[in-house]
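Human: Note token order:
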Amino acid sequence: MLEIGTQAPEFTLPDQNGELKSLSDFRGQKVILYFYPKDMTAGCAKQACAFGELYPQFREKGAAVIGISKDSVASHKRFEEKYGLPFTLLSDTEKSVIQAYDVWKEKKLYGKINMGVVRTTYLIDENGVIIKAFGKVKAADNPAQMLGELE
């Protein structure tokens, strides 16, 4: 996980509509940057839907919400449409941003060790500095927790 107080690594990735988005596009507002393992899975859908439900409150507080996974643009589009997600989903099929943010780790599942995205959320300030970092977050609780961090 990246250190609090460090500059968030800059990136440019395609969103669910195939449009390139950069972290610097969001300068001047806080950014909730969350990394999740896979579109259409139960935990990831719970987390995304909770961010979607709270999205108006995040906007009221001047914060953008961005989800990143290694899924394709097309997968993100299906995920957005199925759950009516109102925020940006970025596709990192090369895992370059996932690795830059240190969320690609060994994971144990049923005794097997695999590499994968560890569910992690960063709060980035208006100047692109990481001010909060949460690793191994609980999918259903994370959105409300992040809204509380904006108080």
